[in-house]
Amino acid sequence: MLEIKGLRKHYRGGGGAGTPALDGISLRIAEGEFTAVLGPSGAGKSTLIRCINRLVEPDAGEVIWNGKPVTGSPPEELRNIRAEIGMVFQQMQLLSRLSVMTNVIAGQFARMPRWRSLLGVFPAEAARQARSALAEVGLSGLEGRRVDALSGGQQQRAAIARVIMQQPKLLLGDEPISSLDAVNAERVLALIARLHREKGMTVVLNLHNVAMAKRYASRIIGLTAGRITFDGPPEQLGEHELKR
Ligand code: ADP
Ligand code: ADP
């Protein structure tokens, strides 16, 4: 269970006299839910997702993951909590000059000696898991390819393979399909849906595409100017909910 209580964030600087990015958000997301966050640009979607694992520090409020406070937890506890939370971004945040294999393994084996990643030599079990994750996302055979030689869709699938290696209980996505064409967007969402279904992963994604959000998510949260304007099943999201 993910609990968010009274979350507030007001960015300073940049003439920050305006409205807060998050204006007191409270939510409970049950284990196994697939939630999509929708809303216009600047609504606070990205800030909300990033406050959940404290990539952005909220000014006030609480985030509690399975009874453990994320907000206020010291660095070593935060590290343990983050190990259970996977994240995919619009820009995949892969190491573009290194191999697909290195990228997929790197997330989980961050403490591996640097020569391993430079030479592409990994413990056999890690390599086996990575190959299996790459097969799941349809990238078998591209293990040795440099990431910057992949297409955008392949890169996002490599990022998903990295998340599969992590085996997170919660998957956060900050516009994970926004940089992809329709075919790859569908493919990546279908992959995330399969992880949700088969591994019981709780999923919270910011999406721009309302139709796809309605198709994949079991719950839609509408955000406008840092406040929740809609929270319900996709069937209840009518045209009037999308007007601002
Ligand atoms: P969304 O993801 O819905 O587009 P964001 O969370 O990115 O919304 O942004 C919410 C508001 O916070 C916007 O007004 C945006 O300009 C502002 N904002 C986001 N990130 C920063 C930042 N790093 N510094 C200053 N303002 C920011
Ligand atoms: P942008 O300014 O980034 O182009 P839009 O304003 O077009 O973003 O909104 C992005 C999508 O989110 C649109 O398809 C819109 O229908 C939907 N949307 C906008 N506001 C809401 C809201 N309050 N709740 C749910 N969905 C919304």
UniProtKB/TrEMBL annotation:
The gene is phnC. InterPro entries: AAA+_ATPase, ABC_transporter-like_ATP-bd, ABC_transporter-like_CS, ABC_transpr_PhnC, MetN_ABC_transporter-like, P-loop_NTPase. GO terms for molecular function: ATP binding. It holds the Pfam family ABC_tran. Keywords: ATP-binding, Cell membrane, Membrane, Nucleotide-binding, Phosphonate transport, Translocase, Transport. This is Phosphonate ABC transporter ATP-binding protein. It comes from Paenibacillus gansuensis. Residues 2-244 form the ABC transporter domain. PROSITE patterns: ABC_TRANSPORTER_1 (PS00211), ABC_TRANSPORTER_2 (PS50893). PANTHER family: AMINO ACID IMPORT ATP-BINDING PROTEIN, PHOSPHONATES IMPORT ATP-BINDING PROTEIN PHNC.
